[in-house]
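ugh finaly. both done.
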Amino acid sequence: MYALQTRTVQYPQRTDWHEDPWLVRLWDRGATLFRRLILMNEARQKAFVQAVASCETHLQGATLEALQQALCDVRLQLRREGLQQSSLAQAFALVRMASQQTLGLRHHDVQIRGGHALVQGFLIEMNTGEGKTLTATLAAAVAALSGRQVQVVTVNDYLAQRDATEMQPLYEWLGLTTAWVLEDAGPAERRQAYQADIVYCTGKTLTFDYLKDRIALDDRVSPLKMLLDAYTGHWQQQVLLPGLQFAIVDEVDSILIDEARTPLIISSSGGSVEEETFYVSAIEFARQLQEAEHFQYSENRQLIDLTLSGRQLLEQLTADAEGLWCNRFRREEAVLQALSALHRFQRDVHYIVRDDKVLIVDEHTGRIMPDRSWEKGMQQLIEAKEHVSLTPPRITLAKISFQLFFRRFLQLSGMSGTCREIAGEISRVYNLRMIRIPPHKPSQRVQVPSQIFADAEQKWLAIETCIIECQLRGQPILVGTRSILAADTLSARLQYGGVEHQVLHARQDETEAEIIAEAGQRGRVTLATNMAGRGTDIKLQAGVAALGGLHVLITELHDNQRIDRQLIGRCARQGEPGSWQEILSLEDELVSNWLPPLNRLLRLLLRSSPENRLIGWVARAYYRSAQWMLERLHRRIRAKLLKAEFNLRRSLSFTGKME
């Protein structure tokens, strides 16, 4: 029976810890491609939609008792036979009817297609605003009815709690339990929540809880030992998760790709007073070194190296020091790290300082990551730089990346509005094939011609003009900035000009819901970092659609095009009108150090001929090439990280430890 595949295993998960041989990988990709082209082609998708409609027609007019009996029959059939097409059609019809009764929302045909692909283990791309949250309920509910415990993975706690709360009535009608797990939840609360049929949580929360389970289980991961632990009660007291059975990843490109370069680490406090003094001294020594004379900093490659003069000066500065400073290799390594803390990591860009603490700002979401810290002493060096209390150094207990963790689910699927650019990488790493789902309504999004300037001052003036024009005609505008510093800079200029506006970034995270709720009102000006990107639904005030809907203004491109597309996706949702525009400069962070001679030449040409279309086109192509090269670099880093993790697992396998 299908349900027994997971119910008879104490902690179901994939146990292939090592990289598969190339022939196995080739076979898996071929099988997945076959399923995509043959079993999930356009004709079969439409046939499934018709089958669901036919089942729904038969159920129309049925009493509540009859519907509940049909639900019991489908549940039994799914648990016996698995996800067969006939059972899926009947189950989807019941979920659609339940949604209409409990939520007042009926799944569109394109959402039926999306849910069908998800439950079959595919990656779907749906336009922003097409209702991915409601689409996920189809796959989550049907998988839970078949006996699988489902985790719906989102990008932040706000979305996890919101989606679980909104969809709870639907799941209750289907006889399913649902819960959500927040980052600050306690162990008992987490353990109880994970027993629900469907759990909403963030990828970081889920992965950390898995690492805690691995630490608790230690070497007791064999089926016999786990079964004995269950009988003695040790299992119930120590383990949080019910295994890794079925995951639906929302905003899959953010979690499985953008976050893949950051390993997740569980650590314990360590260190001593001597180490704190060492970090403070490293910062003091680094402040005395001058760029170009004592060290070279390649901002484009993010590399710092000491010159011969710098090494000599460092030796003089540490002549009277003791301990690690007497070792040439250790002192140069420490000062290089300190130089990185001083020059690579910027306040209000990479982190903020709040309540005598250094808090990391996620570059992809713009949100504060209170439980995250830099490793290898970087956290302590930045704290010394900002003159705040130093946190004790950490000792690593367990470590894993998203790339390795999500490969361990028995079944994995995902969805996003911006994943076609990384479909190939996701297919190689996670064996997930992408299916493009067409929109329910034609898009009315309008692109206003882009503008690019030689200098930042010209860009800010053009942005102010655009904001004032939108405000005068009553059109709400969302202005996206790359960093907190840029948002504050623009805010100060607007305040000086008397332009009323609101600011949304990591410092105003408490008022996020209120600011978003008002962002679609007539004449509203909202400045925001990436916090206004993924998962943000801006409702338009009555009459605003006639004024052109929401206008999105991008003031600087991000490290990858998908983040920009997510911000653009806040306008013109579900067939509404909307527009977007880019206003950029060649002094922006992304291009300021990309091919410097060409940058200087283009800036000179733009100053002399700002209206020349050819020069403007070349400047925009140059800007895009910088973004493309950075995306390529990050893709290589992710591939190297995964390869290194496989090598580490191979080494650890000799010791009996896997994390």
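ok and the 2nd:
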Amino acid sequence: MYRMMGMTDFLNLKKDFNNDKKLSVIESFIFQIILKHINDLIFIMKVEIDGSFTYLFVNEMGKIRAKLDNNYAGKTFYDLQPAKSADELNEKYTFVKNHKMATTFQDRVKIDENHFAYGETILTPIQNDDADVIYIIGVTRDISERVHEKTLLIESQQMYKSLVDFNMDAVLSVDNDGVICSFNHSAKRILKVDDEYINVSVFSLFEYSYHLEIQHAFQRSINGESSEGEAVLIQKQNRLNVHYKTVPIMINETVSGIFFILRDITEKVKHAELIEHLAYHDSLTGLYNRSALKKDLPKVMEISKQNQTPLALMFMDLDRFKMLNDTLGHNNGDQILIEVGKRLLSINSPEFNVYRHGGDEFIIVLPSSNVEAASKVASQILDMFKDPFSINDNLYYVSISIGISIYPDDCQDEDSLIMNADKALYVVKQSSRAQYQHYHKAMDKNTNELLSMETALRRSIGNNELKLHYQPQVDLHTNEIVSYEVLLRWENSHLGNVSPAKFVPIAEESGLIISIGEWVIEEACKQLMQWKKEGLGEIVLAINLSAKQFEQPYLVEKIKSLFSEYYINPNQIEFEITEGALQNVDEALHIMSRLKEIGVAISIDDFGTGYSSLMYLKQFPIDSLKIDQSFIREVLTDQKDEAIVKTILSIAENLGLLVVAEGIETLEQLNFLKTLNCQKGQGFYFSKPIPPEEITNRLKD
């Protein structure tokens, strides 16, 4: 005991106690307290006659915490503590002395700049026989950890309360019977609920069709699992789409309630529905589109297979619509397409769907329909189209042609069903028009590769099967690439890579070359804009114009529009025109002059192979001649080819025209052309036609 207290401290205490009559009692009591609370801070203060308090004994822990040296005995609070602390201590000790009763208080002590210690002090008075308080024993226990834990608990409670109160989602707490106990401010705002919903069943908030789902989710949470899903709330005659979560409220490892967390997703659902509508509906007519047909047809055919009932598919095309569209303008053409859609939707048939397949093509799917039923509907449609369309107070007659294919009689898969109907349509279009025709297998025998290719080619743009490749054109004196010729490529899922030598003549004969040619010009303009965005400069492209395309009255306006839309510098474009397009000199001169006004360059393609006339070299505003590869191929071995090449180069030089030789495949051919001062060339010697990505990579490297 002496060791723990310190010899000096004990002697001072003993000496003072010797003057008291009840020394043995006091000494026993004091040391019991000291022994009991030895790990706490012990302060024994003597009450002086003047009412002040002097230190009589302080244990080691007390001296450390109070920062007292060993000479504390007999000194007051004011001798050893800062004035403010001394006042607070003196007030508390005075209270104990005056009221002669123990008291407890808590205080905070600063340890350093960033840390505090918390203590709880019990002040106990010691009285003499006259009931006067002569000593006050203070025992201070460090409660920092307890205060810290309490603070964390309070902060945790406030944190989770904030999580509920300030949550942007509606949060409802319900008891284990599903009765609403409370809800946050967001619930009031989103769900439009008020206090009258307290003690109401949470299930009553949901649309009846969702009750079973919500009850299952609730039961999972009662069993200690979270759950989530989407449902609809009934909100004062309005429907509210919500994403819900059910979360068990766990207290002492027991589920004592459920949190319902509800997020308003009404706008998201509407947006998703809009996106789905746009994905599967034609933006002009509102009919189902090609994507919807691709999604629906396999399902309808499967149902037909299960029910062992036939299914009819009708492929329809408006007759001479392109001419009408070009004549009336696209706005009026669009109005006709809209009215066509309305008429097709009004046919008298128990069950059908109408799809706009693209352009002026429509498809009708007739479940549970055989040949006779399909023929009846087709006749009805033809009769409908005998009546004119009224557009802007003008009447226009538009006829329609129909091809019909039956599942499973004609085929076993959806692609064949569509293709067979298309073949039947083709037969109608090639004969009388404004009729319907059923597919039959004899059509396959009579339909050669030309028909299949044309049928596929008509879908090539819509099916994203056409691609552009670019063949470098080289300055023969510097060996630098100065431009690229745009070349069309077609890859079909059934026909594979189709040679331009095969499909271009078909496109020419069928008139498809006009729409394909327009697509080529626009795609080339898009690519030029893309290269410019990537910082690759203003690349020059040479684009072929077919004879039919060259004759179109709106050609120049179309090119101007594309240049404006894609920010094309006219100096970036050279149009290659075949000699066959120049037979009508006056018309050709007019069109070429308008093209030159735009600022593009003009080249005569395959010079010497067609209707060549030296007169048009003088009359037409052309910039260059292109020597056909058939002359270059044997220029070193055939004297006639050599003579033709030399003549073309000589004429061009005298007329100030640039010459491009195509089909250069050997170094010897290149050197020969250089000696004749041929300015540009292209061919496999330099590069095969390459996709745009490869050009991008080369230029970036």
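summary for the 2nd one i guess: The domain at 464-700 is CATH 3.20.20.450 (TIM Barrel).
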